[in-house]
Amino acid sequence: MRLIHLAVTAVFVLPLAVVTASASRLPEAPPISVADVLPAPAEAVPDPEAAFPLTRDTVIVASGAAVPVAEQLADAFRPATGFPLKVVPAAATNAIALTLADDGAAGDEGYRLDVRTDAVSLRAAQPAGLFAGVQTLRQLLPPEIDAPKAQHRDWAIPGGRIVDRPRFAYRGAMLDLARHFHTPDEVRRYIDQISRFKINHLHLHLADDQGWRIQIDSWPRLATVGGGKGTGVRGIGGGYLTKDDYRALVRYAADRFVTIVPEIDMPGHVNAAQVAYPELTCDGLAPKPRIDIRVGYSSLCAGKEITYRFAEDVIREVAELTPGKYLHIGGDEAHSTPHADYLAFQARVLPLVRKYGKIAVGWQEIAAAPAARDAIVQYWNHEGDPAPIVASGAKVLVSPADRAYLDMQYDLLTPGGLHWAGTTEVDDAYGWDPGRVLSGVPEDLILGVEAPLWSETLRDLADLEFLAFPRLVAHAELGWSPRATHDWESFRARLGAYGPRWTRQGVRFYRSPQIRWVNI
Fold this sequence. Notes:
alpha/beta, 7-stranded mixed β-sheet
C-alpha cells in the first residue's frame, strides 16, 4: 500500500515560491453564497435577498438528540461573535432551528437548510445529518468566524436553500501512526479538520515494521518494545496509545460523527511485533529493529499455531475497544509470505474478525483469498492487476495511490513526502471519479473513498497538515458530492476562498499555484 519500488528521495527544503506570493495579485473574497460550500452540496439555490442577520439576541432552537449538535454550533460561533447564542427548546423568531425529522429522502447524513431573513431551519433525519448541516453553516459566515474575538461587525448567513446528501457512505482519511507516532492531541486536531469537510471515517494504521502503537494487554511488549523509544522511521517516532488514549480518541471522533477504523497489518509489516516477540518468526530468532522505509521483508509464520493465537488476541482486544463496525487487517505487500501460506493465513484470520463482531477490511491483496468475499477490499495499487478485486465481488474502498495518497509530493520540490506513485497536485487529486476508477466494479459496489497519509517523512502536526491540505478536501468532495457537481473551475474557486479560514485556524496548508487564493 506504500512503496512498490524504492527510487525515492524525500526533500526537506521548502522553496520560496511555495510560501510567498504577491499580495497585490490575491483577489478579495467575493460575497458568500449557499453554493460556495466545500464539498459542493447536492442542490443549492441562493436567495441574495433573504440573508439572516446573526445578532446578540439570536438563539439556537433544539430538543432531544439535536441538542448536542446545537451546542457544537453555538460553541463554534460564540468566540468570534461574542454573542450568547443560547440553546433553547423553542423560539418564534431570530432563531437557528435544528430539527430531527425524517422525510425519507436524505438518509442518515443528509440535511435540508433553509435560510430566510427571520429564521434559519436545519432539518435532518439523524444527528449525523444535522452535524453535516452545521459544517455547511460554518462556511456560510465570513472567515473571521474562525478567529476568536473577531473584529467583524456584521454577521449574516446568506439566504437560500440547500438540500444535501452524500454520494458514498464511507468518506475516509487514513493516518499512519506506525512510521511516526502522532500524539493524541495531533490526532484530535486532524479529526477537527477532516470533520469540517464531512469526512466520516478515520483509519488509524497502528502497526508496521517500524513501530507498534496500541496497547495489547495479552502481549504487553508489543507496545512497550514495539512502540518504545527509538522506534519509527529514523528512530525518532516513538510512542504508543494506551487503551485509555484510544478510547478517548474514539469518543472524541464519535462526537464529530467520525468513526475510527483501526488497522493491524499482517501477515507482512510485522517486524516491530517480531522484535518484541521473536517466537512470532519462523526460526524463533529476533530480527533487528527497522527504522528505514523498505517494505516486504517481514512475515508471520503461517505454519505456527502461535501466529493465530497472536492474531486472535490482538483482534479480540482491538475489537473490544472499537465500537465502529470495521477492523482493518492490512494484508498488503506480504512479499516474504509464500502465496499458499498467505491464503492459509487469511483463511484462519479473516473469520476471526467476524467472530468478534466486526467487518474485515484489507488492502487489495486480500481479494485473492476466498475468505475475503465478505470483507471490504481497499484498492490502492494503481499499477496492480484489478482482476482479483473484480472477481471477488466484494465491496471496495478506493484509494488509488497516484490520486489519493496524501504523502505523495505536490511536485519534486515539495518538503517531505515521497513520489514513488508520482507527484500529485490539487487538480490530480480532484480529477478522477471514485465510481469509475475500477473497470468491472459497478458503483453500487464502491463503499467509498479514502485518502491515506503515510508518515515516513512526517515529524509533527505542521508536516501532516501541509501534505493533507488542500488535497484532502478534493477527496472529500469526490466522496460526498454528486458526480454531476464535479467541476474543477468551481472547486478551485471555492477552495481559494477557503484559504483565509485555514490561516485563521493556524493550519499549515500548501498554497498551490493552481489555486487563486483570496487575500489571506
